[in-house]
Amino acid sequence: MAAQYRAAASLAWLGLVALAAAGGAARADEIDAGRAKAQACSVCHGPLGLAVAPDAPNLAGQPAMYLAAQLRAYRSGARRHEVMSVMAKPLSDDDIANLAAWFAAIRVEATPPR
Fold first, then answer.
1. Residue among 101, 28, 24, 108 nearest 60 (CA)
2. 4 within domain boundaries
3. The pTM is what?
4. Separation of CA 101 from chain center
5. What does the alpha-carbon distance between residue 113 and residue 97 come to, in Å, rounded to a whole number?
6. Is residue 54 assigned to a domain?
7. Which of 102, 113, 112, 16 is nearest to 62 (CA)?
8. Which of 4, 41, 77, 98 is 20 to 30 Å apart from 14, CA to CA?
9. pLDDT for the residue 40
10. What is the model's pLDDT at position 6?
11. In-domain check, residue 67
């Protein structure tokens, strides 16, 4: 029984990984559209998603799924922030997908301290 459970869990995990990989792949046109749309974001989040405002998070390299969920939450009012609530309100679903694709496509390298 334990072996069957482990096999089923392994298959489920592989399915989730495959689904995430397939669903997470952004097309070049989505990334390009997101880059154009992100100009409005650059005031706080920087042109490459590296924040220039001290209270703004870095967006570069964040998973598209996470970014899209947060933008939808700001748009709906489920998540509130004085600036982001206003910025997200007019975004369409395509705008959100494109912005998420752009910021997720930016690669960030982390270097641990010595």
1. 108
2. no
3. 0.77
4. 7
5. 34
6. yes
7. 102
8. 98
9. 96
10. 55
11. yes
Looking up tokens 């997908």 gives 97
Q: 80 in helix, strand or coil?
A: coil
The whole domain housing 40 covers: 27-105
Q: pLDDT tens digits, residue range 8-55?
A: 555 444 444 444 444 556 799 999 999 999 999 999 999 999 999 999
pLDDT digits (tens, 9 = 90+) for 71-105: 999 999 999 999 999 999 999 999 999 999 999 99
Q: What is the CATH number for 38?
A: 1.10.760.10
DSSP assignment of 10-70 equals: HHHHHHHHHHHHHHHPPPHHHHHHHHHHGGGGHHHH-TTS---STTS---TT--HHHHHHH
Q: Is residue 73 a part of any domain in this protein? A: yes
Taking the CA of residue 1 as centre, how many other CA atoms within 13 Å lie in the half-sphere pointing to its CB? 0
- Total structural domains within the chain: 1
